[in-house]
Each structure stands twice: as structure tokens, then as C-alpha cells.
Design a protein that fits this description.
heterodimer, A: alpha/beta, Aspartate Aminotransferase, domain 2, Aspartate Aminotransferase, domain 1, 2 domains, seven-stranded mixed β-sheet, four-stranded antiparallel β-sheet, 13 strands, 41% helix, globular, B: alpha+beta, Sufe protein. Chain: A, three-stranded antiparallel β-sheet, 16% strand, elongated
């Protein structure tokens, strides 16, 4: 098996699993309980908070645990909209966000908020000046993702953060795909809110966090007990959070060396595909990208057909769109970058991770070349 | 609260398909996979070499298919196709040509997308629309053939 879909999810690292296992077995208490095993569980939460905070340059009190990236994004957007609706009802985001942000914005529109979806250039980047031009006196939140899940393209967050801070507008970034792949420093990008999750960096699914800068006060969207400084009710997923903390300490604090290794393998993959298959292009290749992601267009063949051939040979990658319902939506990200629907439909994302080897990359190049050749012989276009 | 009859709750809840709840588990049976990996009758026919031709696009999903037929003694003696599309589109295109091969024109016109699905002993629900394209291409190629047979009206 060759797994090249690390942007979808990662396996849980052995050491992360061991820490979680220990927590399941010995710190099973409710962190809200007074007695010893409750306090021990609470101690585990503290430790995880410190690990995540120190990996992203935050204070532990600025870390709020959630069930994952989607909830973190919802809390940031809905929580800020709720808190600041008296001040204004306008949000700015981008056309290439993850659906956790996009569909939350669409829902907020139904509730009477106005949302500007910024376009991107052909490399998938937002122009900070365009963003600045969209700010009105009603604008209460800017939400721009750190790195795109489909293309790996990194947004100019330092510039966007500076503009937001100058104009005194809260700035959220979905850093789900960035954590573990590039160093994150919340003060360098001047983020007020930042979403992360565990399962993209060898941690468990179902555990995530939202960084909320001191002085920023979103309102809770889940109400109940007084957990997480009254921002997120619900008994904490202690083993999941322990795994999240372990994953951040291990993979987010110093991602450099592994990112460099993956970058070399990714370049090898892109060069191999470009050299062995006629008429291939790489989406976002002229923009800064996280080093593990390659999004490749194979014109005149359908992505799902490529994926099934690869699947049958034990190679797992993903496509931006699937003809699953009879009305497939080509990837909104590639569409926003100006790709024709058919090109978007012929795009495959390969995302590399810590088990990826040069041999696997070479085998993938060979298999993809065979597959595309085969499908092009059948193709009517 | 209004007065309720004694029906148990469970009966009031329409039974949901597991696929509706968890999303479709896309998978094809071995025969579909076989037609996808080894499609039958792939190819094209040169101008003058065929008696009917059609180019059909599926406006819904952007799939596209070209189909050629050669007709001898009112039978489809040769059939070739090329398809751009998902695995379902490729496999059903292939199966359509298998069903049409050697059929008389009248028999071929009666082939439906249900016949294609049946020949596979089923394809995933959300992929059934793919089978329309092959059948539509076949019917269009037959129409092309028939139009060429008619002496021109003017």
C-alpha cells in the first residue's frame, strides 16, 4: 500500500497512541471532578494546553479544546459574529476556504450577515490589497486560511494580519493544514483566532483546538457546563486532547527537517510526472506551498477514473471532485483559480507524509504514467 | 401537545438507507471493474468506414462519448467507442457496445439504460445516470445511420 493522502488524515503516531492509551487506562476521571483521578485528568489537559501553546507561540490560557477543525472554525466565525453583531454584520473570507468556513459563512448570510468571498489569482493566492479594499465600517471578522488543503498554497497571512490589526478587525485563520507542515507563530501573523486539529499531524480524529488571543471574546456556540473558560461546554475528550498535545509537541513545534525531506520527495514526484506524462500541469506551483502537497492536472482524463486505477493497485490519493451524486461539483478551489471544470475534474492531489519513501514516489510516478496513458487511449477528448 | 394515537415511534420514522446516513459507499462489482479496466470495443472508425456516428455529452457531469457503428444486412456488425468520464461512464459505455454488437437495428433500438445496469447485475445508485450516456450515444448513432439511408427530402 502507498498512502498519499496525508492531507485527508494521518495515521496516529505510535507515541501519540501510547500517551492516549495510558490516559484511557489510568486518567479516566472527569477533569471537573474534585478527587484525585479527576485532578489527574485535569493535569493532563493542562499539559496538552502547554504543548499546543508552545508549538504556536501562544499562552496556554489562549488554547480552547474543541472536537476538531470544523468546530474550531464554527466557534471562531459564529462566536465572533454573535459577539460583535452589535458593531457590524460584515465578514471577509476567501473563495478557497475549507467548507467548514465556507458553509458556516453561507449559514451566517442566512442569519443576516453579509460576507465577501475574496477571489484568488491563478496561483491560488489572495491579494492583501484587494482584501483591504473590501473592509467597511461594518466589517467585524476576516477569515483567511493558512494553507490550502487541496493545493497546499500558503496565503500571505503576515500582510493580512497586519491590515486586520491596523484596522482593528478580528482576524481568524484556519491552520488545520499548516500545523505540522510549517512553523506557526500566532504573533508573527497577528492572528486573533487560529483553528487546528489533531488528525492531520499524526494525532487522533475528534480533537482540535482554537487559539483565541487574550482580549478577543467570541461567544460560546455550545452551551452547558463551565468548561474551557466558559467558551466550550462539554466534558473534555481527555485522551483525544492528550493525543493532540503529544502530536503538537512532536510534529508542530519543529516541522522543519521533515518538511524539507517531504519537499524533496514532492519535487521528485512533480518532476517525474511532468517528465513522464505529456501535458501535465501543477496547480499553484508558482505560489509558496506547504512542502508535502502536489495537485496535478492530467488533461482529458477524469480524476475519479485515475483514482480507481490507482486504488486497484494499492495507491491512495484523492481528487478535488467526485462524480458521486450525478451532479459533481468540480473543486471550488481549482474553479476559483480559474481552471476549466474539466481540468479541475482531471486533477489529483497527492499529499505526502512521514512514511513516504523515494521508492514509493517512483512507483507512483510509474503507475500514474501507465494509468493516464491508458485512459487517454480510451478518452474521446 | 395534541392527543397522539398509539403508534410506536419507530413506525413514524421513515426508514433511512444506510447510504443516506453515512454517504454512499462507492464501490463497483467485479464485472463493472472488469469493463472499466478492460473496456470492450474501444477505438474509432475512419471516415467512410462507419455507417453511423454520434458524439454525446452528459450535460450533468461533463462526461463525453463518441460511438461508431458499421451496419451489414441491418445488423450492427462492428461497434467502437471512446469515452471521457468516471469509471461508471467508461464501464457502461463498454457494456452498451457489448449489448449492441450483432443486434439488428430494431433490436438495438430497444436497448435501455436499465438493460445496461441489469447486464452488470447492478451498479451503485448514484452512478446509474452514467448508463444513459452509452445508450443515448447508441441511439444517436443509429439515427445517424438511418438518416443516411433516407433519400434526401429536397
Amino acid at each position: 500500500m502507498i498512502y498519499l493522502d496525508y492531507n485527508a488524515t494521518t495515521p496516529v503516531h505510535f507515541d501519540v497512541l501510547a500517551a492516549m492509551q495510558d490516559c484511557f487506562e489510568t486518567q479516566f476521571g472527569n477533569p471537573s471532578s474534585f478527587y484525585r483521578i479527576g485532578r489527574e485528568a485535569k493535569q493532563k489537559l493542562h499539559e496538552a494546553r502547554v504543548k499546543i501553546a508552545s508549538a504556536i507561540g501562544a499562552d496556554p490560557l489562549e488554547i480552547y479544546f474543541t472536537s476538531g477543525g470544523t468546530e474550531s472554525d464554527n466557534l471562531a466565525l459564529r462566536g465572533m459574529a454573535k459577539a460583535l453583531q452589535g458593531r457590524g454584520r460584515h465578514l471577509i473570507t476567501t473563495a478557497v476556504e475549507h467548507h467548514a468556513v465556507l458553509n458556516t459563512c453561507r449559514d451566517l448570510e442566512k442569519e443576516g450577515f453579509a460576507v465577501t468571498y475574496l477571489p484568488v489569482d491563478s496561483n491560488g493566492r489572495v491579494d492583501p490589497e484587494t482584501l483591504a479594499g473590501e473592509i467597511t465600517s461594518e466589517t467585524i471578522l476576516i477569515s483567511v486560511m493558512y494553507a490550502n488543503n487541496e493545493t497546499g498554497v500558503i496565503q500571505p497571512l503576515a500582510d493580512i494580519g497586519r491590515i486586520a490589526r491596523e484596522r482593528d478587525i478580528a482576524f481568524h485563520t484556519d491552520a488545520v493544514q499548516a500545523a505540522g507542515k510549517i512553523p506557526i507563530d500566532v504573533s508573527a501573523i497577528r492572528a486573533d483566532l487560529l483553528s487546528v486539529t489533531g488528525h492531520k499531524l499524526y494525532g487522533p480524529k475528534g480533537a482540535g483546538a482554537l487559539y483565541v488571543r487574550k482580549g478577543i471574546a467570541p461567544r460560546a456556540i455550545l452551551t452547558g457546563g463551565r468548561h474551557e473558560q466558559d467558551l466550550r461546554a462539554g466534558t473534555e475528550n481527555v485522551p483525544g486532547i492528550v493525543g493532540l498535545g503529544e502530536a503538537f509537541a512532536r510534529f508542530a513545534a519543529n516541522p522543519g527537517p521533515e518538511a524539507q525531506r517531504l519537499g524533496q520527495l514532492r519535487d521528485r514526484l512533480e518532476e517525474g510526472l511532468t517528465q513522464n506524462i505529456p501535458n501535465v500541469c501543477i496547480n499553484g506551483c508558482r505560489a509558496p506551498r506547504i512542502s508535502n502537497t502536489a495537485n496535478v492536472v492530467f488533461p482529458s482524463v477524469d480524476g475519479e477514473s485515475i483514482l480507481l486505477h490507482l486504488d486497484l493497485k494499492g495507491i491512495y490519493a484523492s481528487s478535488g471532485s467526485a462524480c458521486a451524486t450525478g451532479s459533481p461539483e468540480p473543486s471550488h478551489v481549482l474553479k476559483a483559480m480559474g481552471l476549466a471544470p474539466r481540468a479541475a475534474q482531471g486533477s489529483i492531489r497527492f499529499s505526502l507524509g512521514n512514511a513516504t519513501t523515494a521508492e514509493e514516489i517512483d512507483q507512483t510516478i510509474e503507475t500514474v504514467a501507465e494509468t493516464v496513458d491508458r485512459l487517454r487511449r480510451i478518452s474521446s477528448i | 401537545m395534541g392527543k397522539k394515537d398509539n403508534k410506536p415511534m419507530a413506525e413514524e420514522i421513515p426508514s433511512a438507507d444506510l447510504e443516506d446516513v453515512s454517504g454512499p459507499v462507492i464501490f463497483y462489482n467485479d464485472l463493472v471493474i472488469d469493463h472499466f479496466t478492460n473496456p470492450r470495443n474501444v477505438g474509432d472508425m475512419a471516415e467512410g468506414d462507419y455507417d453511423g456516428y454520434a458524439l454525446i455529452g452528459d450535460p450533468v457531469c461533463g462526461d463525453q462519448m463518441k460511438l461508431w457503428i458499421r451496419v451489414r444486412e441491418n445488423r450492427i456488425s462492428e461497434i467502437r467507442f471512446k469515452s471521457y468520464g468516471c469509471p461508471g461512464a467508461i464501464a457502461t459505455s463498454s457494456m452498451t457496445t457489448v449489448l449492441a454488437q450483432d443486434k439488428t437495428i430494431e433490436e438495438a433500438k430497444r436497448i435501455t439504460d436499465d438493460d445496461v445496469v441489469e447486464a452488470f447485475a447492478g451498479i451503485p445508485d448514484h452512478k446509474k445516470h452514467c448508463s444513459m450516456m452509452g445508450v443515448n450515444a447508441l441511439l444517436a448513432a443509429i439515427r445517424d445511420f438511418e438518416q443516411k439511408q433516407e433519400p434526401s427530402a429536397e
